[in-house]
């Protein structure tokens, strides 16, 4: 029996696949009108992801950041003919890539359009993606239920707080946040706690 979609309406389908020892979320986005698909983070378990990618007509992978647990299936994806994109500042962390994703780039998936938001802090090149026409955010490891992703220094922590304050938390409160690990949340749920996170500190 087919698994239910993580999110679905008349125009799109999003599937969530949890892979690897760190239980990474991989999201498969598909435009129903054209049948074209895209993956957010080729994280692990390429033997599972590549057949899924072929079935969903996936032509590109968007990498939210370069940490090893999010890129273990990158080589297999490229060998399967799928182009891999990554933020410029994290490109050197990947074993290979095909294009860079700059801030405010628009990536088309059939008739769907993803907008890239550079959100440094967790890594220098972290990128999140909003879906034009839907209140949906793919947040990578920048925003989770209960706060920002891990940082390695007070400077990085300051960067991720600024990224949240300036780029993510101004999004509409109903925006569904799909993070790189764990459960979904919404911007409205997380926004009131920014001050607490900043005070809590690195």
Strands of the largest sheet, in order across it? 1-2-3-4-5-6-7
What is the succession of H and E elements?
EEEEHEHEEEEEEEEHEEHH
CATH architecture: 4-Layer Sandwich
Largest beta-sheet characterization: 7 strands, mixed
Sheet/helix structural class: alpha/beta
Q: Report the end-to-end length measured between terminal Cα atoms.
A: 45 Å
Number of helices: 5
Average pLDDT works out at 97
- Look at the structure and name the CATH superfamily: Ribonuclease Z/Hydroxyacylglutathione hydrolase-like
General shape: globular
Quick structural overview:
With 202 residues, the protein is an alpha/beta fold. The chain has helices at residues 46-55, 74-79, 154-168, 187-190, 194-200; strands spanning 7-8, 12-19, 24-31, 37-40, 58-63, 83-86, 99-100, 106-109, 112-118, 127-131, 136-140, 143-144, 147-148, 176-179, 185-186. The strands form three sheets. The protein has a seven-stranded mixed sheet with strand order 1-2-3-4-5-6-7.
Structural description of this entry:
The protein has 202 residues and is an alpha/beta fold. The protein has a single domain, classed as Ribonuclease Z/Hydroxyacylglutathione hydrolase-like (Metallo-beta-lactamase, Chain A, 4-Layer Sandwich). It has helices spanning 46-55, 74-79, 154-168, 187-190, 194-200; strands at 7-8, 12-19, 24-31, 37-40, 58-63, 83-86, 99-100, 106-109, 112-118, 127-131, 136-140, 143-144, 147-148, 176-179, 185-186. A 7-stranded mixed β-sheet has the order 1-2-3-4-5-6-7. A hairpin with a 2-residue loop joins strand 12 (143-144) and strand 13. It is globular and about 45 Å long. The model has no long low-confidence stretch (mean pLDDT 97).
């Amino acid at each position: 029996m087919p698994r239910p979609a993580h999110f679905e309406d008349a125009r799109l389908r999003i599937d969530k696949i949890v892979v690897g020892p760190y239980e990474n979320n991989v999201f498969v986005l598909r435009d129903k009108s054209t049948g074209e698909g895209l993956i957010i983070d080729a994280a692990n378990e390429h033997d599972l992801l590549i057949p899924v990618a072929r079935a969903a007509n996936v032509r590109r992978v968007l990498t939210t950041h370069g940490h090893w647990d999010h890129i273990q299936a990158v080589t297999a994806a490229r060998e399967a003919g799928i182009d891999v994109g990554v933020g410029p500042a994290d490109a050197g962390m990947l074993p290979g890539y095909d294009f860079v994703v700059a801030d405010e780039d628009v990536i088309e998936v059939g008739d769907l359009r993803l907008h890239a938001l550079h959100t440094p802090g967790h890594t220098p090149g972290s990128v999140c993606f909003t879906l034009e026409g839907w209140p949906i955010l793919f947040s990578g490891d920048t925003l989770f239920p209960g706060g920002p992703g891990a940082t390695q220094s007070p400077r990085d922590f300051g960067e991720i707080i600024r990224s949240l304050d300036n780029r993510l938390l101004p999004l509409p409160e109903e925006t569904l946040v799909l993070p790189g690990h764990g459960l979904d949340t919404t911007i409205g749920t997380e926004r009131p706690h920014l001050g607490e996170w900043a005070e809590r500190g690195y």
